[in-house]
Amino acid sequence: MIAPFPGKHCAIGPLVLFVLMLWAIRSANAQAWPTDTAQPSRAEWAAIRKIAELFVDRESPPGVWPFRNPSPAVLASSPRTTFAHYFPPYPLSLDNLPAGRDTYNDALLDPAGAHGRFAAIGGYLRDRPLPVGPWKSRNWREIDDAIEILRAERIGIDGFACDLLRVVPERRFNAWDEINLLMRTAEEVAPRFRIIIEPDSVALRSLSASRLAAAIAALAQYPSAGRLKDGRLIVAPFAPETMGVGYWHAVLDDLESRGVPAAFIPVLLAWRRAAAEFAPISVAMSAWGERDADAVEDGAFGGFETAMAPYTALVMMPVGPQDVRPKSERFWESHNTDAYRLLWMRAIARGARFVQIVTWNDYSETSGIAPSAGTQFLFYDLTAYFNDWYKTGTPPAILRDAIAYCERTEIIPSATGSIAGARMQRMERTPLFNRIELLAFLTAPATLEITLGNHIWREGASAGLAVFSIPARAGRPIFTIVRDGRVVLRVTSAWEIHRSFTIENPAYFGGSSTRPFIAVPPFIGNPDD
């Protein structure tokens, strides 16, 4: 999202940087956002679907997960529903070029990109999507969106909650065109997959209620538009308190007059203050949530469900992995995967009717769970595990031993600011946490080992998903599962940890034993690698 974290900072700075980022994308490559708007033919849609299906099948074949994974159809039949927040500025490709010379690389990751406009913070992004193309097709954008949708559906996600940033077509970066493309692609390649309309109240704050209602009504014509079982269109605005309850009452009334009855699910920032105000027009309530580990466990976000209880019986729980924002020089300490796992367990324990994963692909906040150059499939595969548990009510059975790992590529000093003019400030109260984390899927009890240089750390673990972490040191960790004195599995991290670095990067990266590591040079990890 382009707004700041809940109730903490003014949105003007990040919004200005977002506009500059769009300018960088426009300037970077003439191939970006082509003007050819001809709709694919039926034969072309069949080819698009086939290309995407083959890609996802090769990427995630049967048995790729070390736990029992129900079919998408079984997961879709669950009474619990999972959405993932989709951020249109960051599709799989911005220009259909090879990863080493595309817009992500040249304009957004390279500190010198976009004419050096983001050099002081080491570049606009710290992560990017794993490359999937380029495709020799005029329908490359549809192919990319089809892959995103089928990837999400493969792990039991029911739909995307798509950030609605604009309501008119624009030159080059075209957020309106992108949500239309996403909804049309879902209709063609995954008929069960739904797109929830999530108007961005920060980006659209100067828009009249009638103009927004007209745009929502236009999107409601797509069969893929997300609806409740009674047929009402789901409208789930981000930060609706920015505009006020009266504005949204007018939007809902306007939609009703157009023959589009809507179910309102506000995604609140100041949820403690705004819940009572929005309750009368809401069928469920949500929040943007927390990524700070202590706030998730017992702090600022600890009482969310209890606080919502007087106002709604239905809660959409936000679940997010981490939050690192070079654009505003801030990050939140998520304790490796601790915050993500804790949020999922709260959604499971409390039987939340809806979950919104925050986010699928917002790389400007390093909060995506989609396969990426930095996290690889770490958060994607963890989502498969916890979403199975959430939807079935039972922890997935472990079928074979496997290792996943999570670490930073550098040891962040307690006072950051290694780049002149930039300070990646840690927000909230969780202390800085430089640790290396081993996540083991165990068929039986075992000993977990982490080796770094001449040091070995060991810990016994029970069957199931076990987590073991140690203080970070410079070097390249080796992760091992030992059982009955025998090495069952050993993995060397793809990431080397550095004590000195030129670009501040508090983001957590990852990898696993279950998938080959996909290297995306040269600006992912530490540029000195």
Task: Give your account of this protein's structure.
This protein is globular. Mean pLDDT is 90; it is low at 1-16 and 26-35. It has a domain at 402-512: Immunoglobulins (Immunoglobulin-like), CATH 2.60.40. Strands 3-2-1-11-8-7-6 form a seven-stranded parallel beta sheet. A four-stranded antiparallel beta sheet has the order 17-14-12-20, with no helix packed on it. Strands 16-15-18-19 form a four-stranded antiparallel beta sheet, with no helix packed on it. With 529 residues, it is α/β, with parallel strands linked by helices. Helix content is 28%, strand content 19%.
Topology (elements, then pairings):
Elements: H1 12-28, H2 42-59, H3 72-76, E1 81-86, H4 103-109, H5 113-116, H6 140-154, E2 159-164, H7 175-189, E3 194-199, H8 209-219, E4 233-235, H9 245-257, E5 262-264, E6 267-268, H10 271-278, E7 285-287, H11 293-297, H12 304-308, E8 315-319, E9 323-325, E10 330-332, H13 338-349, E11 354-357, H14 378-392, E12 402-407, E13 425-427, E14 435-442, E15 446-452, E16 455-461, E17 464-471, E18 478-483, E19 486-492, E20 509-512
Helix pairs in contact: 1-4, 2-6, 6-7, 8-9, 13-14
